[in-house]
Amino acid sequence: MTMKHGKLIAGIIGLVLGIVIAFFLPIPHGLTHAAMVVLATLVTANIFWIFNVIPSFATGLLMLSTWVVLQAVPFEDSFAIFSTTTMWIIIGGLALGAAATKTGLITRIAYKIMSYFPANFKGQSLALFISGTIIAPMIPSAHPKAAMSTPIAKGISDALGYKPKSAASSGLFLAAMWGFFVTEGSFLSATAQNYAFKGLLPAKYQAVLSWGNWFLMMIPWTIIILVAGYFLLSFLFKPKDDTPVSREFINEQLKALGPMSKNEKITAISIIAAIIMWILESTINIPSAVTALVWVSILVAAKVLTAEDFKTRMSWSTIIFIGTVMALGNVMQTVGLTNWLRDVLKPVIGPIIGNIWVAVIVLPIIIYLIKFVVVSLISTGTLVTLALLPFVTQMGFSPALIVIIVTTSVNVWLLSYMNAPFLTGSAAVQDGMASRVSLAKSSIGYMAINIIGLLVCVPVWHLMGIA
After folding, report:
1. Which of 134, 133, 125 is nearest to 152 (CA)?
2. What is the pLDDT of residues 40-61, one digit of tens each?
3. Cβ distance 118 to 367 under 8 Å?
């Protein structure tokens, strides 16, 4: 059976299930026909997303439109999310990231950091960890960071004389992905999916997840992820002879970039200013979305970004997809699905969400298992978050912590299909750096380290009054 036929069959099954749920199943006690329509479209949409029947954003738009056509939810409620601050900070953040990539600022930062470290496996893998962590909050999109960082790692690997898909080559690939991608859990602005998961929460819980709070909440996790991750990759992949060689490759790359351009300087100032204003959001009383849009406007006025850049450098399909996913949280509550799901799932989920120590161990394991079936990172996170939303009033900790646990736990790459950004990073180097075995080993290591990192965070969360 071809992939095309598989998608067609999945699509038919999804549509049939949706029709049966919406129009033929008896309406359970406590639900309305509107709730059944929303439940039906959610089932259909997830089948479409899992099997990529049509582009994800198109599935999302069809879901919202179906609510309106079947008169389950008014248009104003179905599409209300597109006028929220969360959507606009995603747009603004992606635009700032596009400027950083376009001007070469991100590449310059990466190579500059690498020039300070020994030109061997341990030195350059550490440099990739550090440069990636510094760059992570500047670009809220995983795929551009993956596509940019792995060719840098390949250049270093070639300069150090490592054979393709050798242990050392695999290690440098993973160091790039670890630094630039895995550390997205450390910063709210490091990926648009963080904003999407945050946007699923009721407004009063979203307020806990400001840029500064997120950063403070994740400091212990970040330290554990970086330190333990560095030693994990060194243990698994460091070559026997790790003698430093010439830094010629890195110096050549820096020389080719030339002096810092005016546009790079303007972009650097804009991003630094935006991050500072995000940290001080509650003090200066300027919403994060407004901050992002102001600095994007300045970049456009300074001609760093053009109208064409907004067409070609912004992933509008991703933005629309995230918006449609975020709409689910409010709509499920409006039609009564949230309360109904709480009653249905309480025997299973109740014991998990009653204690934060149990939650940070059990929830990641559940998410790891779900990833074998649901490929999309954001779809997995959305499913888990939506399943837990009915229990927000019964949690023994702030529901904001669910977003933290979800966003760190969806990033697994045990099997190649589980993680699209890893596929992007691999494609950027023609699948010529990391072996499948190395990916699996490092993913198992990350899965364990992630849980340890979350456990170490719990005392800090207690001190902050959220656990």
Report:
1. 125
2. 998 999 889 878 899 989 999 9
3. no
pTM over cut 0.85 = no
> Are 421 and 192 a contacting pair, CB within 8 Å?
no
Spatial distance between the Cα atoms of 357 and 360, rounded to a whole number of angstroms: 6
Q: What is the pLDDT of residues 70-116, one digit of tens each?
A: 999 999 999 998 888 888 988 998 899 899 989 989 889 988 998 99
Count other Cβ atoms within 10 Å, centred on residue 256.
9
Tens-digit pLDDT profile for residues 427-467: 888 889 999 999 999 999 999 999 999 999 999 999 999 98
Rounded to 5 degrees, what are φ and ψ at 202?
Answer: -55, 150
Q: What is the 3-state secondary structure (H, E, C) of the chain?
A: CCHHHHHHHHHHHHHHHHHHHHHCCCCCCCCCHHHHHHHHHHHHHHHHHHHCCCCHHHHHHHHHHHHHHCCCCCHHHHCHHHHCHHHHHHHHHHHHHHHHHHHCHHHHHHHHHHCCCCCCHHHHHHHHHHHHHHHHHHCCCHHHHHHHHHHHHHHHHHHCCCCCCCHHHHHHHHHHHHHHCHHHHHCHHHCHHHHHHHHCCCHHHHCCCCHHHHHHHHHHHHHHHHHHHHHHHHHHHCCCCCCCCCCHHHHHHHHHHCCCCHHHHHHHHHHHHHHHHHHCHHHHCCCHHHHHHHHHHHHHHCCCCCHHHHHHCCCHHHHHHHHHHHHHHHHHHHCCHHHHHHHHHHHHHHHHHCCHHHHHHHHHHHHHHHCCCCCCHHHHHHHHHHHHHHHHHHCCCCCHHHHHHHHHHCCCCCCHHHCHHHHHHHHHCCCCCCCHHHHHHHHHHHHHHHHHHHHHHHHHHHHCCCC
Q: In terms of Cα–Cα distance, which of 8, 96, 455 is closest to 304? A: 96
The burial class, CB within 10 Å (0-12 / 13-18 / 19+), for 301 is exposed
Are 309 and 102 contacting, i.e. CB atoms less than 8 angstroms apart? yes
